[in-house]
Backbone:
């Protein structure tokens, strides 16, 4: 009985120390050090959720590596957190890849091909910059028809989404990717967080910060 009680006390103590350590780590996250604060917050949908956006480029190796870390984290997000992506357009190739992203989105196959685009670029050395290459890629990897691709590729929908996305990226005032933006207010990068492995921990801290702000109101 004494051994069982001793074992229980040890487990409780270990759990308490872990919790204290986590809280201490969260308390150490500081504005201007581990994340940047936008002078002018960017509007997010007022739906009661905390919005997290990833600014990225398919051609960025750092974005490719972060994708592996983000996947399980995104899958575990609670219902009150909304995650989305915004392709940055800081160059000609970036614009072409953003067009591929929004074309896949308009065709309803983005979730199906998003990771495949990263792998094609970084592992198979497919640049996917031309309309023909992008058409072939989506036909092969998403099972769409060439006719559906051609109908959407230069559509008003895709052009509008690209314009909106570019405006949003510029509103974030970032100069590089990947970056995670929390509720249009806070910017987290690998350099501010202290490495890619720590980015989601900082974002988790900011999500809780925003939750508390909503609860206080």
Residues:
């Amino acid at each position: 009985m004494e051994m069982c009680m001793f074992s229980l006390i040890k487990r409780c103590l270990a759990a308490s120390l872990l919790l204290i350590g986590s809280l201490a780590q969260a308390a150490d996250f500081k504005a201007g050090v581990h994340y940047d604060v936008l002078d002018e917050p960017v509007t997010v949908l007022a739906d009661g959720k905390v919005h997290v956006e990833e600014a990225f480029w398919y051609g960025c190796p750092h974005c490719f590596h972060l994708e592996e870390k983000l996947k399980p984290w995104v899958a575990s997000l609670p219902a009150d957190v909304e995650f989305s992506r915004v392709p940055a357009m800081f160059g000609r190739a970036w614009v072409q890849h953003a067009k591929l992203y929004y074309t896949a989105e308009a065709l309803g196959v983005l979730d199906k091909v998003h990771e495949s685009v990263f792998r094609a670029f970084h592992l198979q050395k497919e640049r996917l910059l031309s309309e023909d290459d992008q058409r072939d890629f989506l036909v092969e990897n998403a099972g769409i028809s060439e006719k559906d691709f051609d109908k959407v590729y230069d559509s008003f929908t895709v052009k509008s989404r690209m314009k909106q996305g570019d405006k949003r990226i510029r509103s974030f005032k970032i100069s590089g990717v990947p970056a995670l933006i929390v509720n249009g207010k806070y910017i987290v990068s690998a350099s501010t967080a202290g490495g890619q492995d720590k980015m989601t921990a900082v974002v988790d801290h900011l999500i809780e910060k925003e939750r508390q702000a909503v609860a206080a109101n």
Remarks:
- Residues 56 and 178 are 5 Å apart (CA to CA).
- The chain has two domains: 1-30, 31-216.
